[in-house]
Amino acid sequence: MDAIIMAGGFGSRLGMGEKPNVELLGKPLISYVIDTLEKTEIIGKIYVAVSPATPSTEGIIDSLYEGRVKVIHTGGGNYVGDMVFAVKSAGIEDPVLILMADIPLLSSELIEHIISEYEKCGKPAMSVFTPISVCKGLGIRPDTVFNWSGKLIVPAGINILDGKDVGHEQDYVSLVLDDEELALNINTASELKKCKDILSERLSEKTSQQ
Q1: How many domains does the chain have?
Q2: Is 209 exposed, middle or buried (0-12, 13-18, 19+ CB in 10 A)?
Q3: CA–CA gap between residue 7 and residue 101 (Å, rounded)
Q4: Based on the number of CB atoms within 10 Å of its own CB, is 176 exposed (0-12), middle (13-18) or buried (19 or more)?
Q5: Which pTM does this prediction carry?
Q6: Max Cα–Cα distance, the chain, nearest Å
């Protein structure tokens, strides 16, 4: 399955310039997502959709990935319109993974699980959510919350769509997962710090086990 990373937002709440390029422990934020996708065997081609709001992101991608990751230029200003344009520009007519550039804790195992659930769902589209309780446990106040069968859930910024029908509304299933890796989207300085703390702790634990 091919993947498109949407990296054209203004990142105004974070206030640190182009959000995909914001440094997190020595790496651009978007590199965490790309590196995880490259390690995921089930993922094919990787694309990054940029906009006039993220003019430097293309240079970062070209420098770090030397042509392995393709950049698509969108008009910006409309997430859905940019996503549709990116899928069509890439010529993808099979199911495609669409995800944001600000999910640095995402793992290959989670991606594989999401795709496996999609393949079993029987619907052309899937949206991934996390319970609001997971966000609260991390001290995060999400901007968008949905009521799903009486349960408050938060979009994780990950969707799978049928590429050949991307220009039309698709029947979808909601996949709700309790993983904190999906809850921590980097939109504010406090969320960036929280992510740094988690990654630093993981690194420290890994080093102590060696």
Answers
A1: 1
A2: exposed
A3: 6
A4: middle
A5: 0.93
A6: 51
pLDDT at 116: 97
DSSP SS3 for 23: strand
Supply the CATH number for residue 130's domain.
3.90.550.10
HEC states along 69-81? EEEEECCCCCHHH
Q: How far apart are CA 11 and CA 188, in angstroms?
A: 9
The rounded distance, in Å, linking the Cα atoms of 135 and 150 is 17
Provide the pLDDT for residue 210: 59
User: What pLDDT is recorded for position 69?
Assistant: 97
* Predicted pLDDT at 138: 87
Q: Are 153 and 132 in contact (CB under 8 A)?
A: yes
Q: How many helices (H) and strands (E) does the chain have?
A: 7, 10
Residues with pLDDT less than 70, the chain:
206, 208-210
Domain that holds residue 124: 2-209
pLDDT attached to residue 95: 97
